[in-house]
Specification:
single chain; alpha+beta; 5 helices; 4 strands; 38% helix
Length: 146
């Protein structure tokens, strides 16, 4: 068991649903390719009010030991800052519950999967609707990785 996989368990051996900072997509050099139009290495999965855009970065493009980094994006056209931040928090919470599943499916693969979760719905969306949309995305990703 890798040290990273061991950190997914609490003292009682139960699954911890965490989304640590090292798994958050922050580097501009990894974010920019996800939004470049015309790239042939991009894949997209629409689901309700969320669209997932992902690509597999080569080992030369990154220096991290993680196999997956995820970013959450909300357009400035949606509401004010408070509204956008609330949507981001809900999206991170919805994703956090399924993060370990996706990361374990990527273990052993070379390179890094960069995933952008892009919100494109109405500002008054509920957490349960976001959970449903992100669950659909993660299920499709897991199916594609097998």
């Amino acid at each position: 068991m890798t040290p990273e996989a061991a950190s997914d368990l609490d003292e009682a051996g139960r699954q911890r649903f965490t989304f640590p900072r090292r798994h958050r997509l922050k580097r501009r050099s990894l974010i920019r390719p996800l939004f470049d139009r015309g790239r042939s290495d991009l894949f997209s999965i629409p689901a309700g009010s969320v669209r997932a855009v992902y690509r597999f970065a080569s080992p030369e493009e990154h220096h991290d030991t993680t196999s997956l980094q995820v970013g959450v994006f909300v357009s400035r056209r949606i509401g004010g800052a408070v509204t956008r931040n609330r949507i981001r928090r809900k999206m991170r919470e919805a994703y956090r519950r399924r993060h370990a599943e996706l990361r374990h499916a990527l273990d052993g693969r070379p390179g890094l999967m960069t995933l952008a979760l892009v919100f494109r719905g109405k500002p008054d969306i509920s957490l349960s609707a976001l959970v449903q949309d992100i669950d659909t995305i993660v299920d499709r990703l897991l199916t594609g990785l097998k």
